[in-house]
Amino acid sequence: MHKNALSVLAAGVTLALAPGIANSAKAGKSAHASKVVSSKQLERGRYMVLTGHCNNCHTYGYSSKQGNVPEKDWLLGSSPLGFRGPWGTTYASNLRLTVRNFTAEQWVKYAKSVKPRPPMPWWPLRDTTEQDLAAMYQYIRHLGPAGEPARDYVPPDKEPKPPYETRQLVQ
Known about the structure:
This protein is mainly α. Helices cover 50% and strands 6% of the residues. It contains 7 helices and 3 strands, in the order H-H-H-E-E-H-H-H-H-E. The chain has helices at residues 2-35, 39-51, 54-58, 95-98, 104-113, 123-127, 130-143; strands at 82-85, 88-90, 164-166. Helix 2 crosses helix 7. The radius of gyration is 25 Å and the shape is globular. The model is unreliable at 1-34 (pLDDT under 50).
């Protein structure tokens, strides 16, 4: 008799909790689903990286090879190549490591407000839509972390290690 009472009690508790458990599972699945990135968004991010010419500086050898660089090597930064001008010598950042420091929302805010040293043209980022910046973020994260951080900035009065390109500011 004692066993039957426990079985009935257990069955009652299970039935009482079942809707809540089911709703929690659905909520967990929908929360996970909202974090899944669509192939359309990845395609848009890839398109924005290409048409925004991010690879020209952020992918070593991209310009000299006329874009013939495997996608697995994209956006790893310009190292060892530096860009030297009146501002000193700068190195394009490894965007695949950079995005790891941001959420999508933080990345959009950063991209719209950052004003790095030349030759980075920051004003196109400011004018890019939040949706396109978010797609770029998702695409860059999709590539995965790889490579090394960029070399440190070299002031104009110091000689940088080769290789570097000499650049002039457009006035």
